[in-house]
Design brief:
alpha/beta; Nucleotidyltransferase, domain 5
């Protein structure tokens, strides 16, 4: 009887599996901290140093560019990740980019729940910046980054190989975005606001 029942089951299993439990366990990033735990000072965009990040993907999801936007100034940085989104590689390259910033500009990063940030702890150890993860299917929680990624598609259309672009090209595109006038910045450019903050923190 038991053998006959097993053969009759559509999946050939002899016992039930708790689908919700296994799916959550399989997809969860270890030690992930939710955006709700991010310091409240990040909410009003007055305090600099809080960043939003996410990759844009190339043809067949085989190449990508990591995008970073600072919430106060809307300053953009782009990081070349030409091949697989290996979590070790992403943590290393993002940390390398963030190390170019002064300490007051390195408070935290929020990220989608993509597995490319599974090594977020290594990123934090190297940069001192905690990573907070957005809720699933909630792109508005990193709205500045979403808007920037939309602009970037003018330079890097969907379905193209993003590995063909050098880091120098990415820096040039970031400079163009940072040189745009923004109404929400009282018609200042992100680079101007960024430099103004640097000057204020450098003065005694």
């Amino acid at each position: 009887m038991r053998t006959e029942l097993k053969l009759a089951l559509r999946k050939g299993r002899t016992r039930r599996v708790n689908r919700s439990r296994t799916t959550v366990a399989r997809g969860r990033i270890v030690d992930m901290v939710n955006i709700d735990e991010r310091p409240k000072e990040a909410d009003d965009r007055v305090v600099p140093g809080f960043w939003e990040g996410d990759p844009i993907l190339g043809k067949g999801n085989k190449s990508q560019i990591a995008t970073l936007v600072e919430r106060t100034t809307r300053f953009v940085m782009l990081v070349r990740i030409p091949y697989a989104r290996n979590a070790e590689k992403v943590a290393y390259l993002l940390a390398q980019k963030m190390e170019t910033l002064p300490d007051f500009k390195k408070k935290s990063v929020i990220w989608d729940q993509g597995k490319e940030m599974a090594r977020h702890a290594k990123f934090t150890v190297r940069t001192g910046m905690p990573v907070y993860f957005c809720d699933p299917h909630s792109p508005w929680q990193r709205g500045s980054n979403e808007d920037t990624n939309g602009l970037l598609r003018q330079y890097f259309p969907k379905g193209t190989d993003l590995s063909l672009h050098s880091q120098e090209e990415l820096d040039s595109v970031a400079a163009q975005l940072n040189g745009r006038l923004w109404q929400m910045l009282d018609w200042w450019k992100p680079v101007e606001v960024f430099k103004d903050l640097l000057a204020k923190h450098a003065s005694p």
